[in-house]
Design goal:
- It is a single chain.
- By secondary structure, the protein is an alpha+beta fold.
- The protein folds into 2 domains: 188 residues, no CATH class; 48 residues, no CATH class.
- The chain is built from 5 helices and 13 strands.
- A hairpin with a 5-residue loop joins strand 11 and strand 12.
- The protein is globular and about 65 Å long.
Length: 291
């Protein structure tokens, strides 16, 4: 690994990430929960995962909502809390799994992104760098069945190497971005280290959803409720209804589909899978409200 060149994505500050938790067991109600209940688990109860050993928490999330239900193996009639978080600074993120062979083996519908180097001299990476990355990516991206958790020892070890590549100084890797194996590399997961989550990640919104059906390739869901921290109390304050209600005082207005995520990071897919959100415009005052 020493001397190996890694091309990493440049992720800007204000980037949104998405996380989900299934409503079950002791976490079966939306009553009284705060953002901490939706973050990484406490060390004593933290299970092993693709990027962590047992007892060493990692904040598993995605760069969009799409991979979440696939990653959790969601089934019809199950309930989940989606949470939206926003980065306060631009992190240094390592990457794994973005090779042609991995995307081909998983049957991805997209090409593997080629991260651009931030330094011209890095373009002189040797073929050995790429060969090493290919081997590590293939090992890391292997599908792991529910009874094969011992395989996580290898993938966690590969991830740990990538966490620790920056030696000394104030800069350190905040985590690793990698293609979603459960979604055939058609979406991206991001695993963030606790120090970054505690200091530089802010919860923005949560959505209570129910899975209606699944054909194995997509999900039909119903949004039941949404929550924000409206008064700074640290608790999720649920609206008590799904969707959007017209604010008081608006007698007439119209909605416009606007590309991009809203100010809380939420979005829907419009025509041709364009990411966007609805904006209500008060015809009297011109004020705009995200729907």
């Amino acid at each position: 690994m020493r001397g190996r060149t890694i091309r990493v994505p440049q992720i800007p500050a204000d980037t949104f990430v998405y996380r989900a938790r299934k409503l079950e067991g002791s976490f079966s109600s939306t009553e009284g929960i705060g953002p901490g209940h939706l973050s990484y688990p406490p060390a004593p109860i933290c299970p092993a995962g693709r990027l962590n050993r047992k007892g060493f928490p990692i904040f598993y999330a995605a760069t969009s909502k799409s991979p979440l239900l696939f990653e959790l193996g969601a089934q019809p009639a199950e309930h989940f809390i989606f949470s939206i978080w926003q980065m306060q600074i631009s992190p240094i993120i390592s990457c794994l799994g973005y090779t042609h062979s991995v995307f081909t083996s998983l049957g991805s519908k997209r090409e593997a992104p080629q991260w651009l180097s931030s330094r011209p001299e890095d373009e002189a990476a040797t073929s050995n760098d790429f060969m090493t990355e290919d081997i590590l990516s293939e090992l890391f991206s292997e599908k792991v069945l529910s009874y094969e958790n011992d395989k996580y020892k290898l993938t966690a070890a590969i991830a740990e190497i990538h966490y620790e590549l920056l030696e000394g100084g104030a800069k350190q890797f905040a985590g690793v971005i990698y293609p979603s194996v459960a979604m055939w590399a058609n979406g991206d997961n991001i695993a963030l280290r606790p120090w970054f989550v505690d200091k530089h990640l802010q919860w923005k919104k949560s959505i209570h959803i129910k899975v209606d059906s699944s054909d194995g390739k997509s999900f039909e869901i119903t949004e039941l409720d949404s929550a924000r921290d409206l008064d700074g109390s640290g608790k999720l304050q649920w609206a008590g209804y799904s969707g959007f209600r017209v604010p008081p005082g608006i007698s007439s207005g119209h909605c416009v589909f606007t590309e991009g995520r809203d100010e809380l990071g939420d979005y829907i897919y419009g025509k041709d899978n364009v990411v966007g959100h609805w904006v209500l415009i008060d015809e009297k005052t011109g004020r705009r409200f995200a729907v």
